[in-house]
Amino acid sequence: MLLNIDLPPEAPPPSAAPDPAASPRREGRGDAPPAEPAEPAEQRSSAAPRPPLVGMPVLALIRPLAVLALLAMVLGRMLAPAMVGLAVGIERTAHAVELAGAGASQLFAIGAIVMAMALISAVVRSRVPYALRIAAIVAGSFVILVVLHATVQRVPDLSAALIGVSAAILALGSAWEALRVPFMRPVAAALGLVGASALVRLTGVLLAVWANERGSKALAGATSSVATAAFALDALAVLTATVALGAGRDARSRGAEQPRPGPRLVSPLSLAALAAALLATRAALAGAAEDASMVETLFRRALDRLLTRPAPVVPLSMQVFVAALSVAVVALALIAPPRLPALGGALALLLVARSAPEVPLGALSLVIAALCVALASRDERGFWASVLATERERAPSALPGAGNRTPPGPTGGASG
């Protein structure tokens, strides 16, 4: 199906062809009415090729999909395992949370597969480099097949490692392509760091397996070093995503005549994320004590599910803080009304997948985030049309004439 989307139509539409009988009549009249030549011009413009996302608002669906991903992560991956045996008398509540997490995971899996197919189709029809198009087809299709296989039986370890590597390589390619667009750089940098962290961490997993099989202390020491490097890249990706929270809201506030030199490092959203992460870290660290409350123990167990393996050689408090900050950034990117909703959804998806790129749904989340970033960096008309449609939905009672104002594209032109 994906190989036929670039085929041209078999024949031009009849309405776009010139009327041979109309030419003599216009020459004989001398004074042709101005409205007569307008009709074939409109027909020709309607038959002209359009950007791939103008008629298909696929980018507008990234944010709702990211909401499902957040629910699946919080309910299914964090809370459901953390509530098992937490206290007496909460078995029904724990079972209800487990069912809710499973339902959110299934809905996210279905929506993510459909979204990935649509994004692959749009990327192939867009103006991204051919190498990135081929990578989108190969990596995206492979990850989709493995996700479909995971619904039937357990994914083999080799397949899990391969989808993690495929998603990470696609993320690096999309990030490199998107770095040329100024307003895309914070999100593109976070995407590239997540992809690099995934590759380094999967290398550490491979070294850990070899060290366990051979009983080599040298390989075990190399595993710790590689895991620490992966954690450093992961922490830098989360901090970059925190900065991108404030950068995305100011992307449209500046005009083409007054470009901003760079995103603000501190914004209300980034401060809120840091404060929430500090409070969650404090509660999680207190949950290790014997006299800890049920809420503190719940925070400790839930955030432990987001810690990466192999364990890096860094303090546990730093690992818990990075995990809590990633959840806070995901929530704020979806709850706060961002100026660029598609980028907010992509930012949330890449942080959801950051600690588990070898998990089928994690790899699929990273693929969707990478394809979204690649499309946003190349298809300016479709991207800004999606942004403008969202702005009109958010502000139906705007000032007169505000709805007709088009936002500037990455190159300073109108969105068309």
TrEMBL record:
Organism's domain of life? Bacteria
Q: Which UniProt keywords apply?
A: Membrane, Transmembrane, Transmembrane helix
> Does the keyword Transmembrane feature in the UniProt annotation?
yes
Transmembrane domains' residue ranges: 65-90, 102-124, 130-151, 158-176, 188-211, 218-245, 310-336, 356-376
Residue ranges of the region described as Disordered: 1-49, 395-416
Q: Is-annotated flag, keyword Transmembrane? A: yes
Q: What is this protein called?
A: Uncharacterized protein
Organism (species): Sorangium cellulosum
